[in-house]
């Protein structure tokens, strides 16, 4: 796995918007943090402030910003300003070959999962992490700090969470992969699909139905994607919707536990990844160790 060079003060980074639009003022906190606290040279995608219906500019505009950032050898990291939807529409048209010859950090989560999965398939590490638009929110200091630690090559302490009754104890070691479950599902059978065998899979999602989650987990099981994991890390499944006239009767975590009940690898619920609560930076494509015990779970690195 190619690990991009770690950042240092004075390096150039780019913030761009490959998915949904947003108020430009939402980036004020991120600009201050990156420029003044981290002492980086921050450039903006030419179409960062654009809007075209549900997207932050047309497909051509968003593609142009992302491709130029990938091509530019002076850029050391690319931050997706936010998720939403739109990155999947660009994936087939992007040329990632400059990223392979001159690796740089790609940062984001949610809709950006498709980009992280694709570059992992190409052998380049990336960061599943908080995005610039979220720097303005409350209680995200730890999320931001873990992102900084990974980008600047500092030691990252293990991530720990309390025990959950649905956990399966054990120790698993492997390369981290995954992200937003809906986007991960749409990598199957494509050039962005990652081989999960022997890997630590982490999943999270937002605003889906209980029935769709059940279908997704069954499809993953039927496709053999869940059988040979080194471990499963389950983050938050926020704003899940049930059928009001025909309630399912199980929540997201119960459905996930049911889908992997036949296997023996460790499973940890409540991990700090997702759209609410802690969303700590995870190095996609790099190794970790998941330890699940009776007192809680821990993810360590290296």
Automatic annotation (TrEMBL):
Where does the record place the LD-carboxypeptidase N-terminal domain? 13-129
Question: Which intervals hold domain LD-carboxypeptidase C-terminal?
Answer: 173-289
Tell me if Heme is a UniProt keyword of this record. no
Going by the UniProt record, its keywords in alphabetical order are: Carboxypeptidase, Hydrolase, Protease, Serine protease
What InterPro entries does UniProt report for this protein, alphabetically?
Carboxypeptidase_A_C_sf, Class_I_gatase-like, LdcA_N, Peptidase_S66_N, Peptidase_S66C, S66_fam
Q: Give the Pfam families listed for this entry.
A: Peptidase_S66 (PF02016), Peptidase_S66C (PF17676)
PANTHER family from the UniProt entry: MURAMOYLTETRAPEPTIDE CARBOXYPEPTIDASE, MUREIN TETRAPEPTIDE CARBOXYPEPTIDASE
**Which family would the database say this protein is a member of?**
Belongs to the peptidase S66 family.
Q: What is this protein called?
A: LD-carboxypeptidase
């Amino acid at each position: 796995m190619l690990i991009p060079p770690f950042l240092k003060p004075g390096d150039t980074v780019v913030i761009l918007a490959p998915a949904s639009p947003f108020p430009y003022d939402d980036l004020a906190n991120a600009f201050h943090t990156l420029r003044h606290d981290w002492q980086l040279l921050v450039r903006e995608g030419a179409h960062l402030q654009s809007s075209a219906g549900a997207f932050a500019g047309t497909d051509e505009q968003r593609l142009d910003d992302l491709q130029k950032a990938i091509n530019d050898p002076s850029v050391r990291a690319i931050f997706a300003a936010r998720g939403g939807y739109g990155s999947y529409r660009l994936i087939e048209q992007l040329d990632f070959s400059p990223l392979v010859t001159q690796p740089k950090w790609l940062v984001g989560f949610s809709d950006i999962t498709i980009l992280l999965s694709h570059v992992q398939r190409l052998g380049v590490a990336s960061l599943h992490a908080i995005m610039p638009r979220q720097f303005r929110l409350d209680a995200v200091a730890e999320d931001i700090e873990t992102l900084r630690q990974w980008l600047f090559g500092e030691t990252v302490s293990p991530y720990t969470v309390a025990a959950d009754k649905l956990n399966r104890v054990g120790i698993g070691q492997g390369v981290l992969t995954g992200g937003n479950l809906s986007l991960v599902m749409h990598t199957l059978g494509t050039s962005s699909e990652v081989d999960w065998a022997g890997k630590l899979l982490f999943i999270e999602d937002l605003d889906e139905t209980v029935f769709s989650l059940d279908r997704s987990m069954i499809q993953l099981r039927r496709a053999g994607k869940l059988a040979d994991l080194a471990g499963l890390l389950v983050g938050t499944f926020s704003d899940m919707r049930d059928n009001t006239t025909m309630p399912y009767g199980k929540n997201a975590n119960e459905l996930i536990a049911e889908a992997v009940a036949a296997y023996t690898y460790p499973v940890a619920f409540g991990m700090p990844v997702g759209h609410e609560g802690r969303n700590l930076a995870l190095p996609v494509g790099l190794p970790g160790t998941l330890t699940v015990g009776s007192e809680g779970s821990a993810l360590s690195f290296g």
